[in-house]
Amino acid sequence: GVPSNAKAIVINVTAVGPTAGGYITVWPSGEARPESSNLNFVPGQTVPNLVNVKLSITDTVCFYSTQPTHLVVDLTGTFERGGGAGAAWAGHARAAASRSGSSTST
């Protein structure tokens, strides 16, 4: 999981089986959605991308997709307050999966 002193997370976000071309944006909850993408995809493609995203004051992030798609989100690391410039390895943890029959851990 995410340590309590994390200020940002490193996640692998994967779009699985989108129905049309589009993009996904990830940003801190409670902030305005940026007008940029973290991941671009075309119909039927499975596309991963590594994303560094700041956590909100409630330690959460938001996901936005312009087209219907399944998302798989894997936590791979964190940036910790007072931890210097590098990311700390978090081990592999599936943070979310929207596919039917998928399991997640926190």
Task: Please provide a written account of the structure.
- This protein is an all-beta fold.
- The chain is 0% helix and 52% strand.
- It contains no helices and seven strands.
- A four-stranded antiparallel β-sheet has the order 4-1-6-7, with no helix packed on it. Strands 3-2-5 form a three-stranded antiparallel β-sheet, with no helix packed on it.
- It is elongated, with a radius of gyration of 14 Å.
How is this fold's topology laid out?
Layout: E1 6-16, E2 22-28, E3 39-41, E4 47-54, E5 61-65, E6 70-80, E7 88-97
Antiparallel strand pairs: 1-4, 1-6, 2-3, 2-5, 6-7
Summarize the structure.
By secondary structure, the protein is mainly β.
For the secondary structure, the number of strands is 7
The averaged pLDDT comes out at: 84
Our Rg estimate from Cα atoms comes to 14 Å
Residue ranges: pLDDT <50 for 5 or more in a row?
102-106
Shape: elongated
Major sheet: 4 strands, antiparallel
Q: What pattern of helices and strands is seen along the backbone?
A: EEEEEEE
Which range does the strand content fall in? over 45%
Oligomer: single chain
* Helix share bin: under 10%
Main sheet strand line-up: 4-1-6-7
**Could you tell me how far the N terminus lies from the C terminus, measured between alpha carbons in angstroms?**
5 Å
Structural class: mainly beta
Helix count from the secondary structure assignment: 0
